[in-house]
Each structure stands twice: as C-alpha cells, then as structure tokens.
Specification:
The chain is an alpha+beta fold and 299 residues long. Helix content is 40%, strand content 18%. A 6-stranded mixed sheet has the order 4-7-8-9-10-11, sandwiched between helices. It has a 3-stranded antiparallel sheet with strand order 1-3-2. A hairpin with a 5-residue loop joins strand 5 and strand 6. Helix 1 packs across helix 4 and helix 2 crosses helix 3. The N and C termini lie far apart (54 Å).
C-alpha cells in the first residue's frame, strides 16, 4: 500500500495523542466526507497500519476507535528517526479509560488549533499522558492541606508549553488535568490539588520540563454544577493561586482564546485566555488572593 502524506499524519497523530483516536476524530480532523474517512481507515487497517474493533466487540467502547498496528508504528518511528523499540507505542488502548482519553484528545486538539491560528502563540511542547508519565516517573514529597507530609508519583494528564510573542516573549506552562466525573469533587480536592501544586514547584519538574512556573489547567467533563463544586474544593484545598478551570464543552477552536471561559477557583467572573495571562490581570489576581487560604508547600 502506498501511504499518502495524510496517512502518515494520521498515524503520527494517533501516536502523539496517547495511541488512540476515535473514528469520528479521524473524520473531522483529516477528511471532509465521512465516506472517504471510512474508506481510508479500512485501507489502513487492511495494511496493518492501524487496528480497530470488530463490530461484535464495539460494546467495549463508547464509540468506534482506532489505534496503531505494528506497521503503523514502524512508519511513525521512521518519520521520527528512531527505532521502533524506542517508540514506546501503545499496542492496546487502556480499555477502562477510552472515554477519558478521547475527551482529552478533543481538549488538546481544540487548544492547539486555537493557538495555531494566532501568530502571537506557538505551542513549543505538548506531552501527552504517556510522555509526561515517563518524564515524571519519580515520586515527589508533598504536604496535604493539614500539613502532613506524603510521597507519591504524580501523573497528570498532560503538559504543554506555549510561547507568547510580545515585546518581551515569554512562556506559559500548563499541567493538564481532565476531570471526567470518575470520583467525587471532594476527593479531587483532597487527592489532586496538593500533589499537583508540589509537582510544579519540585526539582523533578524543573529538571524534566525546564522551569518552576506554571498553572494547573483543569478541564471538566460533565455538568456545570459539578464544575462549580470542583472550583469550591480547589479553593478549600488552597489551590486558588495555582489552578485555572474550564469545561470541555466551552473549549472551541474558534473561541478558545477570546471567550470568557476560564475561572480562577475563588473568583466568580470568568476571563478569556487572552486576558488571563496579561500582567494586569495577574496583578489583580494576586491582590484578590490576599486572605484566601493558600497551600503551604515544601519547595
């Protein structure tokens, strides 16, 4: 089979997006017509470049998906200039997390599309779950809100670094956390806030990701009621100065930079991405944090 440039891009995107895309994502991101997308997916499957579920097995996932097969992994390795053995490609989806991973794909694609359309922004790095997990595989110490010390490996859902071209260019760093309602908002505040804050301030983060600055970008899937409960738990756990929150359905490539969809935990008025990272807003934010509980950290 003669692979087209688009075929190679599909294979590379599957790899970089943690080894899985939905059939619908392949259609929307790479093709104009569904029939052409389905035809090419069938051809790539026949050529052992991708795998897909047989019709009788589709009950296992929320929607049809594709993932790399061995020949597809070889193609990706060749284009990246590495050996297949060093690719760390996923030969099987994480079946229990397919819905989570597809939702995370949508967030990543929408944000990168939005940034790519504006010359002020350029995405320098986006590490998916697999890549960031390999980089941050060592345990870190952290204090919980009660001041008790713990130690564990902290595995966020991703990390991205965006360059902002201004009179003095600078970088925005985000640790990505997708909340898909898999546990209570109270547990999120208890188990996620302190470890993620300490991760960004840790020597491990500085060593592997190149800085000790950044914010945790929490994207929720589910009701708006849960979203605001999550905001309250982040505030109660001392995370207001480190977290910015939004909902997955609010992130659209056309409006992700300009629509007021990003919340700081202790503030009731959302702001746009363009406003959030300005010096003036950050100064105002620091003033509003006076008197708001902040987590005590080790680093």
């Amino acid at each position: 089979m003669q692979l087209t440039r688009r075929d190679v891009e599909i294979l590379k995107t599957i790899y970089h997006y943690d080894g899985i895309l939905s059939v619908d994502q392949v259609h929307r991101w790479f093709f104009g017509a569904k029939r052409r997308a389905y035809y090419r997916i069938a051809a790539l499957s026949e050529a052992k470049c991708i795998q897909r579920l047989a019709p009788a097995e589709r009950y296992r996932v929320p929607e049809p998906i594709v993932w790399l097969d061995k020949i597809g992994a070889q193609v990706v390795a060749n284009h990246m200039g590495v050996e297949e053995a060093d690719l760390n490609w996923r030969s099987q989806p994480r079946w229990s997390r397919v819905g989570h991973d597809l939702a995370l794909n949508e967030v990543r694609h929408s944000l990168t599309q939005a940034w790519s359309k504006d010359p002020q922004y350029s995405v320098e790095t986006w590490h998916g779950q697999e890549a960031v997990g390999r980089l941050l595989s060592s345990p870190i110490a952290y204090l919980d809100p009660q001041g008790q010390q713990h130690q564990k490996v902290v595995n966020p859902d991703g990390y991205c670094c965006v360059r902002v071209d201004a009179s003095k260019p600078y970088r925005l760093r985000f640790v990505i956390e997708l909340d898909n309602n898999s546990f209570s908002s109270r547990r999120f505040g208890r188990d996620k806030v302190a470890p993620l804050i300490h991760l960004m301030r840790s020597p491990l983060y500085q060593q592997e990701l190149g800085g000790q600055t950044g914010r945790v970008l929490v994207v929720t899937v589910g009701s708006e009621v849960r979203f605001h409960h999550l905001r309250s738990e982040v505030k109660a756990a001392g995370g207001s100065g480190y977290f910015v929150l939004t909902r997955a359905e609010w992130i659209q490539p056309e409006t992700a930079l300009t629509a007021p969809i990003f919340y700081v935990a202790h503030l009731d008025t959302p702001v746009s991405f363009r406003v959030y990272h300005t010096d003036s807003f950050q100064r105002q934010l620091r003033e509003t944090l006076i008197g708001v509980p902040q987590l005590r950290t080790l680093y």
